[in-house]
Amino acid sequence: MAVLTDRPAPPVARRADRGPRALVNRFLGYAILIFFGLVFLYPFVIQIANSVKTEPDAAAHPLSPVPDPVTLAGFERIFAGTNFPLWLGNSLLVTVLVTLGRVFFDSLAGYALARLRFRGRAGIFAAVIAVMAVPGVVLLIPKFLVLKQLGLYDSYAGLVVPLLADAAGVFIMKQFFESVPVSIEEAARIDGAGVFRTFWSVVLPTAKPALITLTILSFQGSWNEFPHSLVAVQDPGLFTLPRGLADLVSGSLGKGTQYPLKLGAALLATIPVAVLFMIFQRYFVRDANEGADKG
Amino acid sequence: MATEALRAPATTPVRPPRRRGGGIRSNEHVAGWLFVAPVLVILGLFLLLPILMALWVSLTDWNGQGSPFTGQVPFVGGDNYTRLFAEDGLARRDFMTSIRNNLYYVALVVPAQTVLALGLALVVNNRMLKGKGFFRTAFYFPSVTSSVAISVVFLFMFANSGAVNALLGFFGIEGPQWFADSRGVLHLLLGAVGVDTPPAALTAGGPLGLTWWDWLAGPSVAMMSIICLVVWTTSGTFMLMFLAALQNVPVVLDEASTLDGATRWQRFRHVTLPLIKPTMFLVLTLGLIGSWQVFDQVYVMSQGDPAKTTLTPAYLSYRTAFRDFDYGSGAAISFVLFLIIILLTVFQRRVMADRDEPRRPRWWRRRVPEGS
C-alpha cells in the first residue's frame, strides 16, 4: 500500500467515472440505494395502502400496495368509533404548551449559562449535563410518585408541566448563545437596556436558527411522547394520541384484528411530524450532526 | 422578530444610579438566577426530587395505597434488591429473564444498527451517485416518527398473515407466528443441528435462578421482530452521524491511496475507518446506552409476552409497579437499570473527554483498548 509511484497523478475522479468497472460500481451503488430505499419506505406504503383496504383484503394481501376495493371504512370508524378526535385535541394542546414552554425557558436558561456571570453558574451547568444522562425510562415510577404527591396526577397540568423544560434544550441554546458575538448586547447594555430587555429584543432575534431547531425538536418530542402520559394520567379523557393509539392496539376494541383502522390511526398520528420533517428537514439533520460533534 | 434588534439600542439610559458600584454585577447575579430558575424548578421537582422519592419507595413495601411517605408503609430496607439478586423466587427469575432478554437484544441491535448505519452512510457519501439527498431523507425518516405509531405498523407487518410472512412465502418459506413464538433463536439453531433435547448438565442448574439452558436460549422469535423494528428506526440517525464524519475525511487521502493501488476494502479499512473512529465510538456507546431503554415497542407490541421472552428491565419495572402494584420492587428494578445506564454513560463521557483535550487521533487510538 505504501508503494510510491513516480507516475504523474492522473485526474483520479474522472478516470474512476469511466470504464466498465465504474459502470458496474455505479450500478451496484444504485441497486443498494434502491433496495434500502424500499426497506425504509415500503412499510409506510404498506401502512397507507392497508389503511384504505377492507379487513379481508388486508389479511389476504398485506404486501400489496393497491387496495381492492378502496374503502374509507377504517377512517370512518376511527372518527365515529374511537376517541381519536379527543386524543388529537389533547395532543395538540399538550404539544403546543410544551413547545412554547421549552423554547422560552430553555433559551432563558441557556442565555444565562452562556452570558450572565453569577455565582453557581458552573455548578448549574454541570447539573444540566448530568441530568441529560438520566434515562427517561427509569423515571416512570418516580414521576408517578411526584405527580401523585403534588396532586397533579390525572390532570392536564400533570401532562404538561413536567415536560416544560429539558436539559438537552438548555444545552443547545447555551452552545448557540456562546457563538453569538458579545458586541451586540454590550452596545445595548451600555445604552441602559436591562438584562431581560437585552435578552428579549437584542439577543433572541439573532438566535432564530437555534430557536427553530428547538421548536422542532420540542414539537416532535412532545407529539411522540408516550411513557410520560402512561404514568401521568389514567383517565381516558386525558389520553394523548400515542397513549390512545397504544390503548387501541392492546385490544380494548375487541372483535377482530381491525388492522385498517389501527394503521389509519397510526398514519394520522404520524402525519404532523412527517410534514414538519419535510419542511424543516435541514434542522432535523443538523441536530443529529451536532450530536456527532459534541456527543 | 428580527427588526427588534434595530429598535433596541434606541432605548435611552434612564436609570444611571443603578449601575454604580458593581451594580451591573449584582444585577447580573439576580438576573442569572431568575433566568435559570424555571428550568431549575422543573428539573428539580420532576427529576431530582422524584428520583429521591423512588429511592425511598424502593426500600419499602408500598402497594400504591395512600401516600408512601407516612409511617404506615412498611420499611423493608434492601429486601427489594436482595430479592432481585440473591433470593430464589419469581422476582429474581423474572428479573434475570429480563436481563437475559436485554443482553441478547443489545448483542444484536448494537452491531446491526452500527453496520447498517455505516453501510448506508458509505453509499450515500459516494460521489458518483445522484439522488442521494432523497435516499438520505428516506433512511432518516423512520427515526423521527412516533415509536408507538411505528410499532403499530410493525405489528401488522409481523402478524401471522402479515407482510413479512407474505414476503417469506414468495421464497417458499413458511414464516413463524412471530408474536406467539417464544422459542429462542439459539435453541432453534441447536435444534437444526440435531440437539433436540437439552443436555441434562445444562438444565440441572445455573447461575442466578435461571438454568444454563435458559441463559443460552438466545432472543426469542418474538424478540427478533422487535429487534428488526429498532434497527430499522435507529439506523437513520446513526447514518447521519457517520455521514458527518465521512464528509470530514479529506478526499485527497482517498485518492492518494487509490493511486497507491489500494483496493476498496483496504482503503476503507486503513484510511476511512481510523479517521471515523471517534464517531464509531460515539455510535456504539449511544447504541449501548439506548438499547437498555427499550420500552415503548415492548409495551405496544408484546407486553413482555410470549413466555416473558420480550420482557426487558424497563418494561418489567413498569409492570411490577403498575400492574402488580409492587412499587417497591418496581422502583428497585428501575434503580438497577439506572445504574447500568449511568455506568455506560460515565464510561462514554470519560473516554470522549479524554479524546477532546489533545486533538490527536493517534493519542486516541492508544486510549481505547483499556476500556473497550
Automatic annotation (TrEMBL), chain A:
<feature type="transmembrane region" description="Helical">
    <location>
        <begin position="198"/>
        <end position="219"/>
    </location>
</feature>
<comment type="similarity">
    <text>Belongs to the binding-protein-dependent transport system permease family.</text>
</comment>
<keyword id="KW-0812">Transmembrane</keyword>
<dbReference type="InterPro" id="IPR035906">
    <property type="entry name" value="MetI-like_sf"/>
</dbReference>
<dbReference type="InterPro" id="IPR000515">
    <property type="entry name" value="MetI-like"/>
</dbReference>
<dbReference type="Pfam" id="PF00528">
    <property type="entry name" value="BPD_transp_1"/>
</dbReference>
<feature type="transmembrane region" description="Helical">
    <location>
        <begin position="27"/>
        <end position="46"/>
    </location>
</feature>
<feature type="domain" description="ABC transmembrane type-1">
    <location>
        <begin position="88"/>
        <end position="280"/>
    </location>
</feature>
<feature type="transmembrane region" description="Helical">
    <location>
        <begin position="259"/>
        <end position="280"/>
    </location>
</feature>
<protein>
    <submittedName>
        <fullName>Carbohydrate ABC transporter permease</fullName>
    </submittedName>
</protein>
<feature type="transmembrane region" description="Helical">
    <location>
        <begin position="124"/>
        <end position="144"/>
    </location>
</feature>
<keyword id="KW-0813">Transport</keyword>
<feature type="transmembrane region" description="Helical">
    <location>
        <begin position="156"/>
        <end position="177"/>
    </location>
</feature>
<keyword id="KW-0472">Membrane</keyword>
<feature type="transmembrane region" description="Helical">
    <location>
        <begin position="92"/>
        <end position="112"/>
    </location>
</feature>
<keyword id="KW-1133">Transmembrane helix</keyword>
<keyword id="KW-1003">Cell membrane</keyword>
UniProtKB/TrEMBL annotation, chain B:
<feature type="transmembrane region" description="Helical">
    <location>
        <begin position="103"/>
        <end position="125"/>
    </location>
</feature>
<feature type="transmembrane region" description="Helical">
    <location>
        <begin position="327"/>
        <end position="347"/>
    </location>
</feature>
<protein>
    <submittedName>
        <fullName>Sugar ABC transporter permease</fullName>
    </submittedName>
</protein>
<feature type="transmembrane region" description="Helical">
    <location>
        <begin position="137"/>
        <end position="159"/>
    </location>
</feature>
<dbReference type="InterPro" id="IPR035906">
    <property type="entry name" value="MetI-like_sf"/>
</dbReference>
<feature type="transmembrane region" description="Helical">
    <location>
        <begin position="221"/>
        <end position="246"/>
    </location>
</feature>
<comment type="similarity">
    <text>Belongs to the binding-protein-dependent transport system permease family.</text>
</comment>
<keyword id="KW-0812">Transmembrane</keyword>
<dbReference type="InterPro" id="IPR051393">
    <property type="entry name" value="ABC_transporter_permease"/>
</dbReference>
<dbReference type="InterPro" id="IPR000515">
    <property type="entry name" value="MetI-like"/>
</dbReference>
<keyword id="KW-1003">Cell membrane</keyword>
<feature type="transmembrane region" description="Helical">
    <location>
        <begin position="30"/>
        <end position="57"/>
    </location>
</feature>
<feature type="transmembrane region" description="Helical">
    <location>
        <begin position="275"/>
        <end position="295"/>
    </location>
</feature>
<feature type="region of interest" description="Disordered">
    <location>
        <begin position="1"/>
        <end position="22"/>
    </location>
</feature>
<dbReference type="Pfam" id="PF00528">
    <property type="entry name" value="BPD_transp_1"/>
</dbReference>
<feature type="domain" description="ABC transmembrane type-1">
    <location>
        <begin position="99"/>
        <end position="348"/>
    </location>
</feature>
<keyword id="KW-1133">Transmembrane helix</keyword>
<keyword id="KW-0813">Transport</keyword>
<keyword id="KW-0472">Membrane</keyword>
